[in-house]
Specification:
The complex is a heterodimer.
Chain A: H1 6-17, H2 25-87, H3 97-100, H4 104-107, H5 120-125, H6 130-136, H7 140-145, H8 155-161, E1 164-174, H9 179-192, E2 196-203, E3 214-222, H10 226-235, E4 238-248, H11 250-276, H12 280-312, E5 313-322, H13 336-390
Parallel strand pairs in A: 1-5
Antiparallel strand pairs in A: 1-4, 2-3, 3-5
Chain B: H1 2-29, H2 32-48, H3 59-78, H4 101-115, H5 119-129, H6 135-142, H7 146-162, H8 173-181
Classes of the chains: A alpha+beta, B mainly alpha.
Chain lengths: 391, 182
């Protein structure tokens, strides 16, 4: 409670404050200053208008800069994504059937049997030289074909500069009676195209055992015949899935060649040194170095040979299924607990996936809310400060 | 012409509120020159931003708000950094008149205690007991909630009651009167 006599306090304050007379001169001074103030105020208003204008101008410029940056960045990012992957040593080219399969008429008359249709930009990205760009742009396999069908128009340069390994998988659905004949037909395709069958696996189903026929065959054909083989295989049955990819290993190939050359030069120099060495210890040291270099050269040559064979032959895996049946998928019947455990794991994985999926948008929303709060807080503070200043 | 009309309006403001504003500022700041400076600045500022006074709103709390804010600004920025040459500038002792000697002593003790209050408590005391503003008006003046004003007033009164200048050892009519009341 108030232990104080409020009236006494009031009286004391009044007595103290009223203990002096207030001069009216000050009032006149205030009025004089106030009369001069409008011009100053007008100047200030103009100044604040200029400031505000410049602030607006800055905001507009910042917004315009953002728009320009976005306008430049978005197409760049879109354009760079294939280019960046093409620049890498391994460049998977998983394409749809329509994109992947060559149109023979498009390459007829060029001296090449078949090819993968690539746009001009892709051909440039792959580093094809200008004399052959006209033909190279018609297909990736065309340039590989040049390895064997090189003409005198400078195609050899392209052949040595481009190494691509191609692989593909086709799922074929064939009628039950045609299953065996299709397998034979596929083998024929490979041999006709200058290739061979790497492996086959088949299971012939019977009505008695209520099973159906399934199988797979791995074909290897020269790189330049790969597209043609894909086309042939697709028409051998009903293709339910066609997946092909191409890896550009040119960089890896050139790197291996360069390292081998460098090591060979080193080996030659060590051999020279060895002829001039007079002491046994010196000869032994040089010999040791020579052995190391020779070992490295052989390793690299083996890698080069492997790469060479991979780029010479393309691999096509054909999975055959009987019409009306899906490809063989292992279906283990599980007991209750096992199923529950797997369901639980699956649920956990789905939950984690969901969390990861929403984390991005959630983070974005949080940032947005934080930015809005920050702006709101700033505005509030500015308003408050202004109000205080006015007050 | 409009400027002249405005200046006339300012003259009315000054005639109505200048003296009270100076005395209020004096109680808050503790000396007359600072109080006069603050009030002069306040009136010019209030007049400059007169458009911010909402139509129909009470003028008195608004003007006090300007004065209090200016005083606060001075207390924060100018006065603490000023080298104090004399104590004469502080609250002046009320002139002693023979027949009012006890009251004068009380006034001086109260002012001593008031001086020792923190500025935010001193302001609510001055506004409440000198300017006679309601708690709601004080809240509007200092830009706080009425509850805050109430708690500040309580705290200020508590501190004043405990101040050595107003203790029984130094008997003052306030305490004597309190005892009589009880």
């Amino acid at each position: 409670m108030n232990p104080f006599d409020e009236e006494e306090l009031r009286r004391a304050l009044r007595e103290s404050a009223n203990g002096f007379t207030v001069s009216t001169d000050a009032m006149e001074r205030i009025l004089d200053e106030a009369r001069e103030l409008p011009t100053l105020e007008k100047r200030r208003r103009l100044h604040s208008f200029v400031e505000r204008t410049s602030r607006v101008k800055s905001s507009v410029m910042a917004a315009a800069a953002c728009v320009v940056v976005l306008a430049v960045a978005v197409p760049l990012v879109n354009a760079e994504s294939p280019a960046m992957s093409a620049a890498g040593a391994h460049r998977p080219l998983v394409q749809t059937n329509a994109e992947k399969i060559a149109i023979p008429s498009a390459v007829s008359g060029t001296g090449f049997e078949s090819g993968i249709v690539l746009p001009q930009s892709e051909a440039q990205i792959l580093g094809l030289t200008s004399p052959v760009q006209g033909t190279a742009a018609t297909g990736l396999a065309v340039t590989v074909t040049n390895a064997k069908n090189s003409t005198s128009d400078g195609s050899e340069a392209t052949q040595s500069s481009l190494r691509v390994e191609e692989v593909g998988t086709i799922q074929l659905s064939v009628g039950g009676t045609k299953f065996q004949s299709t397998l034979t037909q596929l083998t024929d395709f490979a041999t006709t195209d200058g290739g061979f069958v790497q492996s086959t696996q088949s299971h012939m189903g019977t009505k008695a055992s209520h099973s159906y026929s399934t199988g797979s065959i791995v074909l290897q054909v020269p790189e330049h015949n790969f597209t043609m083989l894909v086309d042939q295989v697709r028409h051998a049955g009903m293709a339910t899935s066609v997946v092909t990819s191409a890896n550009d290993v040119t960089g890896q190939y050139v790197d291996l060649q360069a390292r081998i050359s460098a090591l060979q030069v080193s080996r030659a120099q060590y051999l020279k040194i060895m002829t001039r060495t007079g002491t046994i210890s010196g000869i032994l040291q040089v010999q040791s170095q020579l052995n190391q270099i020779q070992s490295q050269i052989e390793q690299l040559q083996a890698q080069l040979g492997l790469l060479n064979s991979e780029t010479t032959y393309a691999t096509l895996t054909v999975i055959l299924t009987q019409s009306g049946h899906q490809a063989v998928t292992p279906n283990h019947s599980r007991s209750g607990l096992d199923k529950a455990w797997h369901d639980s794991l699956h649920g956990f994985a789905v939950g984690v996936e969901w969390l990861i999926r929403i984390a991005g948008p959630l983070l974005f929303m949080l940032l947005l809310v934080a930015a809005l709060l920050l702006i709101g807080r700033l505005l509030w503070r500015v308003t408050e400060r202004r109000r205080n200043r006015i007050g | 012409v409009s400027d002249q009309v405005d200046v006339d309006e300012l003259r009315t403001w000054l005639e109505d509120g200048y003296a009270n504003s100076v005395r209020t500022a004096y109680l808050i700041l503790g000396n007359r020159p600072d109080a006069e400076d603050a009030v002069q600045e306040s009136f010019l500022r209030a007049w400059k931003f007169r458009d911010s006074l909402v139509t129909g709103a009470s003028f008195k709390p608004w003007l006090y708000r300007v004065v209090v804010n200016t005083c606060n600004s001075k207390l924060r920025k100018e006065i603490p950094h000023r080298s104090r040459r004399h104590n004469d500038d502080d609250w002046e002792d009320v002139a002693v008149i023979e027949d009012r000697i006890s009251q004068v002593a009380v006034t001086n003790d109260v002012m001593t205690a008031l001086k020792d209050l923190p500025a935010h408590l001193r302001i609510v005391i001055v506004l409440r007991y000198y300017a006679d503003l309601s708690e709601r008006d004080i809240a509007a003046v200092i830009g706080r909630q009425p509850g805050t004003v109430k708690s500040r007033l309580n705290e200020a009164r508590r501190r004043l009651a405990l101040h050595p200048a107003l203790q029984p050892e130094a008997p003052s009519p306030i305490n004597v009167r309190k005892e009589n009341h009880s």
